[in-house]
Fold this sequence. Notes:
The protein is built from eleven helices and eight strands. Strands 1-2-3-4-5-6-7-8 form an eight-stranded parallel barrel, surrounded by seven helices. Strand 4 (96-99), helix 5 (119-131) and strand 5 form a beta-alpha-beta unit. The chain has one domain (11-251): Alpha-Beta Barrel (TIM Barrel). The protein starts with 10 loop residues before the first strand and ends with a helix. Helices cover 48% and strands 16% of the residues. By secondary structure, it is an alpha/beta fold. The chain is globular and about 45 Å long. The site of pyridoxine-5'-phosphate (PXP) has 19 residues, from strand 8 and helix 10.
Amino acid sequence: xxxxxxxxxxxxxxxxxxxxxxxxxxxxxxxxxxxxxxxxxxxxxxxxxxxxxxxxxxxxxxxxxxxxxxxxxxxxxxxxxxxxxxxxxxxxxxxxxxxxxxxxxxxxxxxxxxxxxxxxxxxxxxxxxxxxxxxxxxxxxxxxxxxxxxxxxxxxxxxxxxxxxxxxxxxxxxxxxxxxxxxxxxxxxxxxxxxxxxxxxxxxxxxxxxxxxxxxxxxxxxxxxxxxxxxxxxxxxxxxxxxxxxxxxxxx
Length: 252
Ligand code: PXP
């Protein structure tokens, strides 16, 4: 059964990967994603998300060291389910680890993790992270089978992929957008019923955030690319403040 009342504060995790993308376009040290993270923290981000990719195309190992040192809000480390990443996470023990699928040739995390077909390996993969005290989240498509599998392997959180909803909105496929939104709504309620904490993210913008923020079961949104782009025009703190305002408005 869906919740009838909003759960209160909806957390905003700001993803700073694409500050590092701009830095890495030239090499060198600027712009510094850690500086962006500290600014985001000051501007009201409830957490910082950073994706350490296998190919290190944006965030670097040193960025993770520095984020762990500098932040006072929780760090959500996004990573693929590989031995290398597990060792890095166990060394740092960030507040949260979000397991995402990763393909080198993709531009961004294009789909959710295939949990249902890799259940045994993933259960073993996340066990030491859970024992180390990390809140383990699994990034999945809003599908019943994936949610059930995430629950069975012992994840505390599922993050539902909002990319299909956002793409449909951007491309004017409104019937599909509404169907995707309905799927997200139903699957948020379903995951919550199983006892999972529900997060959502990918591709969210000022235009698409409110309907997702209004789902009472959703506790956290992770937003990056749009905010870093918007920061070019209005600055990072005002860009975040506007997202925060829209989220609060949707939640009220
Ligand atoms: N959540 C997860 C699990 C992601 O992989 C990403 C992209 O790195 C995001 C949220 C943020 O997506 P975007 O940068 O499109 O806002």
